[in-house]
Structure of Transposase:
Amino acid sequence: MAARRVGTDGFEVECIVLNGRPTMRVCQLGYVVAYVHSVRELAAIVALEDLVEVVSLPRR
């Protein structure tokens, strides 16, 4: 499962591999906003301090 983070204003960031290169897919309200390759590029789109990691808990 890919690492996923969510933030304010409906932002979601998912770490993926695109064309063999690590990439972050940035979505807002379900729409792809950008594909970025660095944290600097990501910071230009979304406030990094607002991102929190989504963790799946095991079922009972």
User: Anything to note?
Assistant: The chain is about 10% helix and 45% strand.
